[in-house]
Amino acid sequence: MSKHRLMTKSKSRHRRATSNIFAMLDQSQIQEFKEAFNIIDQNRDGYIDSEDLREMLASLGKEVSEQYIQDMLDEAHGPLNFTMFLTLFGEKLSGTDPEDVIKNAFACFDEEGTGKIHEDRLRELLTTMGDRFNNEQVDNMFQAVTPDENGLFDYIQFIRIIKYGSKDD
């Protein structure tokens, strides 16, 4: 097989793999990924690069090495535009337990790995980032699992309630 034909075949296989992700997700999921992409794409050039990742992680209070950022970018096979971003997340999420997805989202802000986040920090995150909650929605969450005497919200217990219902059910 000629080199040109191999490259063309490889490109079409890659194109097919990335286009299948649009069939796997509904429109609202794609829109949520688009919003996440736009939050990360700090310079609004349509691509996520090392500077975008560094700024986004810094805004979350995370300082990471250049190698860490490069390792993240190396997962993409080429420039990280929205289609590639969607494909990477689709691959990561396919076959993932929704409980794990929720737990990992909380765990990003649980520096000590205790299963708890301070209520003030959680309120700030939920009302200022991504799909923003209003204060009433955060209060409802804190009613489901009341933060302890130190103001720590037990997100592991909260996930259990989401999955299995409250103890009162």
What does this protein structure show overall?
With 169 residues, the chain is mainly α. The chain folds into two domains: 3-93, EF-hand (Recoverin, domain 1); 98-164, Recoverin, domain 1 (Orthogonal Bundle), CATH 1.10.238. The protein contains nine helices and two strands, in the order H-H-H-H-H-H-E-H-H-E-H. It has a two-stranded antiparallel sheet with strand order 1-2. The longest helix has 22 residues, at 3-24. The chain is globular, with a radius of gyration of 19 Å. It starts with a helix and ends in a 5-residue tail after the last helix. This is Myosin regulatory light chain. It comes from Oopsacas minuta. Residues 28-63, 97-132 form the EF-hand domain. One of its GO terms (molecular function) is calcium ion binding. Keywords: Calcium, Metal-binding, Repeat.
CATH superfamily of the largest domain: EF-hand
Q: How big a fraction of the residues is strand?
A: under 5%
Biggest sheet character? 2 strands, antiparallel
CATH architecture of the largest domain: Orthogonal Bundle
How many domains? 2
Q: What would you call the quaternary organization?
A: single chain
**Helical run tally:** 9
What number is the mean pLDDT?
82
Strand order of the largest sheet: 1-2
Q: List segments where confidence is low: pLDDT < 50 over at least 5 consecutive residues.
A: 1-19
Brief summary of the model shown:
63% of the residues lie in helices and 4% in strands. It is built from 9 helices and 2 strands; from the N terminus they run H-H-H-H-H-H-E-H-H-E-H.
Entry keywords:
169 residues; mainly alpha; Recoverin, domain 1; two-stranded antiparallel ribbon; globular; disordered N terminus
